[in-house]
Structures are given as C-alpha cells and as structure tokens.
Design goal:
Largest sheet: 4 strands, antiparallel
Keywords: Signal
Helix content: 10-25%
Strand content: 25-35%
Order of helices and strands: HEEEEEEHEEEEEE
Region (Disordered): 33-52
Radius of gyration: 19 Å
Signal peptide: 1-20
Number of strands: 12
Protein name: Lipoprotein
Distance between the termini: 52 Å
Oligomer: single chain
CATH architecture: Sandwich
Length: 191
Amino acid sequence: MSTWITAALGKRLAALTITAALGLGVAGCSDTSPQQGGALAAPSEPGASAPREQLVKTGDPLTELQGQNGLSLTITSAERDPAACLTIRGDLRNDGSQTAVVPAELRGDELAVLRTGPSLAGATVTDFGRHKRYYVLRDTSGHPLTTTGLSTLKAGESVHVFMQFPAPPASTTEVGFQLPLFDTATIKISG
C-alpha cells in the first residue's frame, strides 16, 4: 500500500474510533434502562399521542418551581449515576385555566441548541461550594440530553421531563437548580 492510502485509512479509523467513543459516553449517561427502578411514562390523557419513553420516579417531590403563565415544575429526583451524569426528573404542569405556550427561553440561548427545537436545555445546576455551573449535556449531534418537543400544555396537563448534566463530585450533595423564567431552588442529590 502506498503511504497516502495508509494515512487516509488511519485517519478514517481514528475518526470512527472517536465517534464510537463519544457515542458510548453519551449512551453511558442516558438513563433509559428498566433496571434503574423507574416506570415508563403514560400519556397524560386517554386520547393523547404515544407516551414519551422516559423513566419516572415516584415519591415525595424535592421542590416545586413556579414559572410564567401558570406553568410549574415539580422536581421529583436528582440522581448521580456511575457514568458521572446527574439526571434531574420532574413534571412540567400547566396550572392555569387556558392552554399555555411553553416559553422558547427554556431552551437557552446557545446557537447550536436553538437549531434543535424546543427543549429544556436552558437549565443549569450550580455547585455552590466549588463555584461551578453545569449545563445540560449534548449528544454527538449537538442535541441536548433533555426533554424536547414541548410546545404547548393544555389547562391541567402535565408532562414528565428530564435533564442530564455532568455530575458534580461525590462530595457535593446539594446543587442549585435554575430554569429560565422559573424560580430557583436548592435540591439534594442522591446516588
């Protein structure tokens, strides 16, 4: 083989290896395995479209945040996993009497995320002890690892949501949680 062909094959193999490693890293942070102790989300009403396949934890909520136009976010869990990801789950609910538009500000203002459509990518967690802020993780295509496709919620409608972040060190047991246009809160991390 010529040197040029060998070099070209080497570059392709390196690119494939890096792509596979990044994909495995994202897969390691995704939390869609039934062994995690959750249940699949059910549609919010009988005639609703197919359920979003997200794990839901039941139990006492960690906190409830109030947003605009009757929207509220109840955070039900904040779990650190062995893959060094922090997954925050909750329920986004419309407590108002009319259909509420999910604000575009919730997806943040990062240009790459704006192109991926409606999401909760604007959420952040803050490790106060280390003065460090963590942003929602992205997959290899730049899509945020969070609930996407939210546009409107009918009066009384609720949807299960999740957001994944890099996990703070194990010694950090509480973080601040911020979502644009919502109250802020301090939440306890489990795991």
